[in-house]
Structures are given as structure tokens and as C-alpha cells.
Amino acid sequence: AGDMDGFVSLYASFENFYTRNIYNRLHDVFNRPICSAPGPVIKIMEREFSQSGWSYKFTGKVLDGIVNLGSYNYLGFAENSGVCAEASIKAIQQYGNGVCSSRCEVGNLDIHAELEEKMARYLDVDACVTFGMGFATNSMNIPCLVGKGCLILSDELNHASLVLGCRLSGANVTIFKHNDMKDLELKLRNAIVNGQPRGYRPWRKILIIVEGVYSMEGSIINLPEVLKLKKKYKAYVFLDEAHSIGALGATGRGVTEYFGIHPKEVDVMMGTFTKSFGAAGGYIAGTKSLVEHLRAKSHSACYATSMAPPVCRQILSSLEVISATEEGKRRIQKLASNCKMFRQGLKKLGFIVYGNDDSPVVPALIYSPCKVGAFSREMLSRGFGVVVVGFPATPIVEARVRFCISAALTEKNLQDALDAISSIGDILQIKYKK
Ligand code: PMP
């Protein structure tokens, strides 16, 4: 991406040594079109690359029966049949596919209100507001809560949507080391106490922003400590449960349930419907006044089209299964036992596995970014779809394969995957040996 007639091309400054031509260099990795529901077994379209690697065409050939270890389908609701899919089809028949308006105009459906009421009840908080997009739930709502003169303390591994929300808010942002409560306290003390006259507080509000489960690390936030610090330093807490709602806790209620903490202790409970619910969109739950404030002020409530009807219905039906049926309980337990089996299996084989043993996100180290493409390609040739990640999403020598475990995967799926991973681990020499 160089000069064009003396003008710098539009995207030139975004290319660097590591990312240059990344889509051409990594044409074997798992970024091909999927032509099925993102369930436990998927179909993938084959592509043929031109010699230069600059373009590709679809061959019409489909790789069938690929075991999916990459989608965030934690509870197995990414389905194209069954009660949830049938309910969504009925929703299309009643409402159509799109809403064509925002909540503030003519896009306020009865099922949106029903979902918000049920979600608030599920989380045992006073109120909830939903949005059509999970990413915008963070990036557009954080600026409604803090602004100039406020301080945000943000975990260094927070998701891009949270980072964007922090930037758009105009608040001062201080980053603390990932899940490091000592560093969080140090940064709080530095920002509030040190150098200030006694009793003087230099910030209008202080907001600590964390996630429940971290999507590249598989770690679980030390929520009890975060809440202790919140109280000690009179701050607020914003908790993103994208990867923990449905996936953590005995009844899937997320990281608060996991630690035995009532959700009301957290000021802003945020989550997405894109993972455990197999749908799309996000929510913020908390007090009535928080929710009323966001309904009126949030750009994503006022200026964006509200959640699509079949999506809303998918969330309502999966929520019903999760919260009120034996099938829901079975899925939550199956996810937990699958996570344990897979994590233990990887460790036994000699891989370095990051994160908490209860986390459905399972990152295993590949180390060198050069091995990322080969790992993914070898997995695909053995019938497994995986997500591999390297710099700049991870530190340069901490490239990894990031497995996402699902309740829909069978023990045989997981054991076969472990066998394949083991032989590839030998070929690429990425197993840890004592
Ligand atoms: N928060 C976190 C922690 C995420 O991982 C993601 C996306 N994976 C989002 C927010 C954005 O949500 P969505 O994909 O539903 O837009």
C-alpha cells in the first residue's frame, strides 16, 4: 500500500511488518465461508487461490462434517432446527425479518419488552435494556455513563468494544495489569490519593471496567476483589459477561453466580446474546434508573435499529430452556464436564493451557506466530475447525490456538480432537517436555 499519484493510499498507515498482506499469507487458516449453522459440526466452502495469492475463487466443493472448535456456541443453541429455530421462524411469519426503525421511533416491539423483563428476572436485578449489537452495547453505552473529568480503570485485556467505549467517552483512562488486583489498587491510589490534598477527590466518577471471562486468555475475573476495591475507593463497576453469561455458574447466571455474589452488587451488568444464546445483540441490566437513563441517552438505543424479531425470539426461547428446563440444566452441566475433560486432556498431552479450569475458552500455546497457519491447516485437514491467534492480538511469542468448548460437542468429538492436536503438537514441536 504505497503512494497513489502523490497521495498516500487510504489504508497505507495501517500495514506494518507483522500484518502486511495477512489475508494472503494466511490463506490456509480458518477464514473460509461457512455454509451451515455454526453448530458442533459444520460445512466449509473450499477456495482456490491464484498463483500470486491475491485472489481466490470458490470451487463449489464443500468440506462436510468439520468438527467446530471455534464458535462461541457454549450451550449449543446455534441450531437450525429444534424449538428455538421453530420459534424464530414463527417470529418471521408474525413480524418479518427486520424492524426498520429504532426503539425510540416505531421499532419498539412487544417481544423486546418481554425479553427485557425476563432477562432482568433471570439476573435478579430491577431492569434490563437490550440492543441490536453486542459491540455497540459497550462502545455506545460507556460514553453515557462517564465523560470528561471522570476516570476509567480498564483491564489491559478488555475487548475492543470496551476500549472504543472508553475512548469515545472522553474520560481519562488508566490501564491496569490483567486481573491483577494489586495493580488495580495501586492505580486507584495513585489516581485518587497520592499528591492530592487530604479529602480532595479529583474525579467526578470512577468506573472500573472488567470482563467475566477473557476471550483470549480464558481467565475468570477476580470479581470479589474488584468489588472490595470498588467499595474501598467509592468507584463503580461495569462488568462485561459476553463469555460468562450462560456459560459459568451452576445455573448459567455468569460470574456473579460463580462467586456467589448478588448481581445487584455490580453497578452495570453487561452481556451479549451472541454466544451462549446462539443469537445476536447485547443487554445492560441493573437499577431502573440506570436502564431509563440508557434508554433515553444511548446512541445505540436512539439511533440504531432495534433487535431483529427472529433474533429476539431465539433469545427468548433459549433463555426459557436455560432458566426453566431440565434440558437447560443438562446443557450447562455438559459444558462444564466438556471443559474439564478437554483442558485436562490438553495438559496431559503436554500443552501449556492458559486460563481458569472452569472457563469455556481454552487457549493452548503455539508460541511462534509462524506456526499458526500450519496448526490451523493441519487441523482442518484432519476434520477440525479451530481459531488461531497471533500478534498483535497476543504478545509476539504467545501465539495460540483458542478453542471454544460447546455443550453440543460429544466426548468422542473432543477425544478425536485431542488425538489430532497431539500428533500436530509433535510435528510442530509445541508440546512442553519436562
Ligand atoms: N464483549 C466481549 C468481551 C466480546 O468478546 C465481544 C465479541 N466477541 C463483544 C463484547 C461484542 O459482542 P458482539 O460480538 O455480540 O457484537
Q: What is this structure, in a nutshell?
A:
By secondary structure, the chain is of the alpha/beta class. The chain has helices spanning 22-25, 83-95, 110-123, 134-139, 142-145, 160-169, 181-192, 223-232, 255-259, 288-297, 299-302, 309-324, 326-349, 372-381, 411-428, and strands at 3-4, 7-8, 41-49, 56-68, 127-131, 151-155, 172-176, 206-211, 236-240, 268-272, 282-286, 361-367, 384-385, 387-389, 399-404. The protein folds into 2 domains: 22-68 and 331-428, Aspartate Aminotransferase, domain 1; 83-324, Type I PLP-dependent aspartate aminotransferase-like (Major domain) (Aspartate Aminotransferase, domain 2, 3-Layer(aba) Sandwich), CATH 3.40.640.
Task: Tell me what the structure shows.
The protein is of the alpha/beta class. It has two domains: 22-68 and 331-428, Aspartate Aminotransferase, domain 1; 83-324, Aspartate Aminotransferase, domain 2, CATH 3.40.640.10. The protein is built from 15 helices and 15 strands. The protein has helices at residues 22-25, 83-95, 110-123, 134-139, 142-145, 160-169, 181-192, 223-232, 255-259, 288-297, 299-302, 309-324, 326-349, 372-381, 411-428, and strands at residues 3-4, 7-8, 41-49, 56-68, 127-131, 151-155, 172-176, 206-211, 236-240, 268-272, 282-286, 361-367, 384-385, 387-389, 399-404. The strands form four sheets. It has a seven-stranded mixed beta sheet, sandwiched between helices. β1 (3-4) and β2 form a beta hairpin. α12 packs across α13. The protein is globular. The model has no long low-confidence stretch (mean pLDDT 92). It binds 4'-deoxy-4'-aminopyridoxal-5'-phosphate. 4'-deoxy-4'-aminopyridoxal-5'-phosphate binds next to α4.
